[in-house]
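Message: I would love a firmer grasp of how sequence relates to backbone shape in proteins. Thank you; the sequence and its tokens follow:
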Amino acid sequence: MTDALDLTGRLGLLNLLLEWEGRLNNGRLRALFGLSVVRASEWIREFREHSPDAVTWNSKTRSFHVNKGFYRTGRRSGKAGEAAAESLSRYLSLVGLPRLVDGSAGARVTWSAFPDLSSPAPRVFSALSEAAASRRGVRIGYRSMREPKEHQRTIFPHNLVRAGRRWHVRAYCEDNQDFRDFALGRITGIDLLAESAVMGEEEDAAWMARVPVSLVAHPKLAPEQQGLIRFEYLNNTASRTETCRGALVSYFIQDVRAATDTSSQVPPEYQLAVENIEEIKAWLFPTRPAGR
């Protein structure tokens, strides 16, 4: 039981929660840890006594919000970057996405088997989470393949999502007057704005669209190999259709490494293929996607 933790354990949990969510409040602690109203308040009081400069009370949200000084300055790299990746894994486990599960016979099941090469900075992650929750804008420094030098963007986030190996934020970009994806690892700085979002999730047509993606064994595999792929990925059927948000179709296809052009994308690199390519073509990334 979390309430049986000693003071160090309780402070560690709240520190982790604050690092990645940017706020502490009574309701969140009750939901996560099964605490009473009084006990959740006691946990927060302990944290504030131990770290008096970490948070500031916000009467509007009825939460203690993180102060900028809580985060280390500068971009994490080397061992610090590894620490950030491990911290994120512990946070995801805390809120319900486990990294390791101990089996009764001592076996360990790992959902993240490899190092995270682009772990987001906690301050970036928490500020975007706060902006999405409160429907506010953020001013970010950003670098993209199209504009590799740092430049400023004003965006209004509505969802954070891990697609493939990277974390992205889906947001309305004021500069482009359109909804775009922004890789968290390419954000160089961030400031939360008071400005409210005028365009949100409901207006993001690509995010709201539900697109069927039909997968088949690659036609250039030998018949026996196609049978194996159907067994492994397609539930022993000729094809498998998954419904995906329009904005995430390309990420999904990249993640499962499915060919969209079976003449040039061939085995052994590609073992799956998209069957309904004409139907989903409008949702695929252009050759040089904007905002990437």
Q: What stands out?
A: Residues 73-78, 98-111, 288-292 have pLDDT under 50 and may be disordered. The CA atoms of residues 162 and 180 lie 15 Å apart. The first strand starts at residue 23 and ends at 24. The chain has nine helices and 14 strands.
